[in-house]
Design brief:
360 residues; alpha/beta; five-stranded parallel sheet
Length: 360
């Protein structure tokens, strides 16, 4: 059987979840695979008593993860909120994997997401042939999660139209899903809850109603606090990508990752790391996720169009592509940064030349 491109979290980290279950002696909420304490250990990493190492999935504030996990033990849903690329979907997936053993109950929010995508749909061939019946129902992830007592994930909640968002109010407040066509309802089994994600760049697109906001406990996931923290996140995620894609290339040097993270952090904050030079800020978010993407792209370039060792020339196009989203304003911001910050740094001459050679 061909190897899948991307395994679900519960498949990729199956051994870690099994080891945590074996060592987990704390009380578990109904239908939870792990105790809340073990879920936090899975997310943040821990060395178990038998010496087994659980790798960190999220590098950041332990308290934020504890608040998120504690929320899911109550009747309140969880909203993970923050800038694009702050690991909201990543945390959501791993929380679902650790709690329910299943991260596949997911609805991807878009402008086209309909009410039927959240509540239920119909098999119209069967509906016409037999009339309304339970067999003619098409279950959504929300309905399945309610029946099985699992976590359902709703990605990019604010991309969904306001009228469709409000479909969730009855589910979150009453823990029931009415099916008036059959005069029945689906009642949520213990263990059911909702994790939604939203990014603040979409603020104002489809604001959550006051009624819906009250049903969520919001946890804001920030950008990494320190340079070392962000470098560690990029290094770990890139190592995971390299393993899955089986690239014939050397692992990227920490020094190369550090340069990319430095560029992103300086442009994001509008000032150089030493605080001496103020910078214009581009329209792009320059998140950690985009830094990971730049390194992954650089590794692919080095593997198939280089000598297998990632160099500045392999990274240049990815860096420019991440920064220059607006071809006019962002191009000016990037060119000023290149000439005033990158050029004077002796150890960055190769990046300066590589970027200048692309003529952007």
């Amino acid at each position: 059987m061909a190897t899948v491109l991307r395994q679900h979290a519960e498949q990729q980290f199956e051994q870690e979840l099994e080891e945590l279950q074996k060592q987990d002696s704390d009380k578990k909420p109904p239908n939870w695979k792990l105790s809340p304490q073990a879920v936090v250990s899975y997310l943040l990493g821990k060395k178990l008593k038998n010496g087994f190492e659980v790798s960190p999935k999220y590098i950041g504030s332990q308290r934020l993860i504890e608040i998120a996990v504690a929320t899911l033990t109550t009747d309140r849903a969880l909203l993970l909120y923050g800038l694009p690329g702050t690991a909201k979907s990543w945390v959501s997936e791993h929380l679902s994997a650790a709690i329910s053993g299943d991260s596949t109950m997911i609805i991807q929010g878009t402008a086209g997401t309909s009410e039927e995508s959240i509540r239920y749909g119909w098999n119209y061939a069967r509906l016409l042939a037999e009339g309304p019946s339970e067999k003619a129902l098409v279950e959504t992830p929300v309905m399945k999660a309610m029946k099985d007592g699992k976590i359902v994930r709703i990605e990019e909640l604010t991309r969904i139209g306001s009228d469709v968002q409000d479909t969730l109010i009855t589910v979150l407040s009453e823990k029931t899903l009415p099916i008036p066509e059959l005069n029945i309802e689906v009642q949520a089994v213990k263990g059911f809850n909702v994790i939604a994600t939203a990014n603040n760049r979409d603020k104002g697109v489809n604001e959550l109603s006051g009624a819906l906001k009250r049903r969520f406990n919001t946890v804001i996931l920030p950008l990494p606090d320190s340079m070392d923290e962000e470098i560690d996140i990029v290094r770990r995620r890139v190592a995971s990508f390299e393993k899955v894609m089986e690239l014939p290339t050397e692992p990227p040097a920490v020094a190369e990752i550090k340069r990319i993270v430095t560029i992103f952090r300086e442009l994001r904050s509008g000032v150089t790391l030493d605080g001496k030079t103020k910078l214009k800020v581009p329209s792009s978010t320059l998140s950690t996720a985009e830094a990971i993407s730049v390194v992954n792209s650089g590794m692919a370039m080095a593997a198939y169009f280089g000598d297998g060792s990632m160099k500045a020339a392999d990274l240049a196009a990815g860096i420019i592509g991440a920064i220059v989203k607006d071809p006019v304003q962002d191009k000016i911001v990037w060119q000023e940064y290149l000439e005033t910050v990158v050029k004077p740094r002796d150890e960055w001459k190769d990046i300066y030349r590589a970027c200048r050679d692309l003529g952007v």
